[in-house]
Write a structure and sequence with these properties.
One of its GO terms (molecular function) is protein-arginine omega-N symmetric methyltransferase activity. This is SAM-dependent MidA family methyltransferase. Keywords: Methyltransferase, Transferase. Pfam families: Methyltransf_28. The chain is of the alpha/beta class. It has a domain at 5-39 and 56-132 and 189-263: Rossmann fold. The chain is 28% helix and 22% strand. The chain has eight helices and 17 strands. It has helices at 7-16, 38-54, 70-78, 164-173, 192-204, 264-270, 282-285, 287-304; strands spanning 5-6, 61-64, 84-88, 101-104, 121-125, 135-138, 144-149, 156-161, 187-189, 209-214, 216-217, 229-232, 235-237, 246-248, 251-252, 260-263, 313-318. A seven-stranded mixed sheet has the order 4-3-2-5-10-17-16. α2 (38-54) packs across α8. The longest helix has 18 residues, at 287-304. 43% of the residues are buried. The mean pLDDT is 91.
Amino acid sequence: MSPAVPWAQAWGRSLYGERGFYRSDVGPAGHFATATHGATGRVLARALLRLARERGCTGGVVDVGAGRGELLRHLRELDDAVPLLGVDVVDRPAGLAPDVAWLSSPGGASLPEDLAPRDALVVAHEWLDVVPCTVAEVDGGGTLREVLVDPLGGGETLGAPLDGADLSWCAEHWREALDASAVPGDRVEVGRSRDAAWADLLGRLDGGLALAVDYGHRRGSRPPGGTLTAFREGREVSPVADGSCDLTAHVAVDSLRADEVLRQRDALHRLGVSGRTPEHGLASRDPASYLAGLAESGAAGALLDPTGYGGFWWVLARG
């Protein structure tokens, strides 16, 4: 066993440390797919380019938490002129188009010092859910205490009562864990670190628009057991902070500074993503186009599915 430490500390080291999960050779794509990968990524990229045009984001698209450049590749294939910049904890991925810029990030909530987008659409796709945060649990006496974890074994213990800024955040945004109705074992992921990371990103914008896309929750529907979980080799597994798996927790989207918060399904409908299948007569006139249209409609359907990607939240804020 190793000494128990606060979850936020173990989480950060596990994902972004020297041998962290996101620094591995295979990268996240070796363990799971996101909406930026494959056919869904192409449909999403087209919608984001339309969003950038509609909102007057003449400075291009910045992808924060860009992974190995999956979304950037789709964007470049669709538009060979739009300025693109990727930001992630790893060095520039091999095979990325030469005109796509790249900044290496410290990871987590920390952004590169010289990141200062101007008039750009800044996309943070599943970034905030992997910004480590304090995890707390209601004990047998009804007190909310910080959860400590053995980074190697995964065993948890309860530490000191939550206080200070973390307790204040809960009182404002996750009151259920402090009410008399809270029961032992109820958990909270304190979103203060995500709020700060988002505020830092917005503070760097010179014009333009920031968009966070993530799974999350709002007041009135906070999950009483929390959402901290892990993924390894395509499967959801018990969280362990040893660098072998992704660690993620849903975002309290209504605690973020925002001009608009809506479901991805609604946002994509506004941007012309419908999921309609191509006209059947096209199958005989142009079979290749028909098959391509079917593939695209299937990808669009996946992005719009309210039980899947369509249930993601979009948080939009002007710089």
